[in-house]
Specification:
47% of the residues lie in helices and 10% in strands. With 99 residues, the chain is mainly alpha-helical. Helix 1 packs antiparallel against helix 2. It binds iron/sulfur cluster (SF4).
Length: 99
Amino acid sequence: MLFDNPDAMLICAFKRDNALCEPDPDATAPRQYDCRPGCGNAVRTDTHARQLLARADEIDQLAASTPGPLGKRLRINANKLRATADTHDATAQPAEAIA
Ligand code: SF4
C-alpha cells in the first residue's frame, strides 16, 4: 500500500516489518509524522528530488542569517537533503524498470 508523504517529500511503500517509524505490531499504515531518513520503504520521484533541493536552498538562506551552532546545524541539514537528492539522481530507475 502506498502513502503519499509530502512533508517528507516521498511516497511510503509501507511494509510494516521494514518501517523505521516504529508502527504498532498490527499497524496497516505508517506513522508518517515520524518518518525517518534511510527507511527502505521510501520511494522518491524526480519531483521529490527537486523539492529536496529547493528545501535545501531555503534552509541555507536561513542559515546565512543564523549565527553559531544553529546556523551550522541548518547547513548540515541542507547538505543532508542535497545528499538524498543526489542519491536519488544516481540510483533512479524509470517506472517501467520496476513495474
Ligand atoms: S519511516 Fe517513513 S518511509 Fe518508512 S515506513 Fe515510516 S513513513 Fe514510511
